[in-house]
Amino acid sequence: MASSRKRIWRWSRDILIALLIFGAWQWWTSKDLVTGPTPPLVGFDLEGQPLSLADLKGRPVLVHFWATWCPVCRLENGSIDAIARDHAVLAVATTSGSAEEVRAYMAQEGLHFPVLLDEEGGLARQWQVSGVPATFVVNRAGDIAWAGQGFSTEIGLRLWLWWAE
User: Fold this and answer.
1) SS3 of 65, please?
2) Given this model, what pLDDT does residue 3 score?
């Protein structure tokens, strides 16, 4: 009985340590991301149509910077696509090539979320994104409610969107 309690205590301790390390890592990688009111996010989608974050004001929006060459982004893409079925999502393909190349990648991966093209990385610089993936949750007022860089879980992003409601 005592060894069972010790084992439970060790597991609890190890889980707590892992969560603290993960939280510290999230804080460290996200500390330089833009906060407060959102910078402008205006450009063209993959079909050449104008697309803007301002068009989505009044509801929570997931703004997701990603790249076709990023392996972590590839892991997240399915989650971003699933979230886009229920919530406003504006994804920014940064330094990922031409619209045709990004469109081909999305077709190959079966992705359907709306994408702003950021061929030169200018939009990423405006948002102080130094690496991808970087994700922001924007609340109804147009302020950044949460920002994170690196892998994010679908459940975590959904919780942040719920919180931004």
Assistant:
1) strand
2) 80
- The 3-state DSSP class for residue 24 equals helix
Cα–Cα distance for residue pair 146/13, rounded to 1 Å: 28
Q: Where are the domains of the chain?
A: 1-31, 33-164
Contact 128, 103 (CB under 8 A): no
Label residues 10-35 b or e (16+ Cβ within 10 Å = b). Answer: eeeeeeeeeeeeeeeebeeebeebee
- Fold type of domain 33-164: Glutaredoxin (3.40.30)
The model carries a pTM of: 0.81
CA–CA distances in Å: residue 62 to residues 14, 78, 88, 90 = 32, 14, 6, 6
Please give the Cα distance from 57 to 147 (Å, whole number).
Answer: 18
User: Model confidence over 107-147: pLDDT tens digits?
Assistant: 999 999 999 999 999 999 999 999 999 999 999 999 999 99
Which of 143, 145, 137, 140 has the alpha carbon at shortest distance from 58? 140
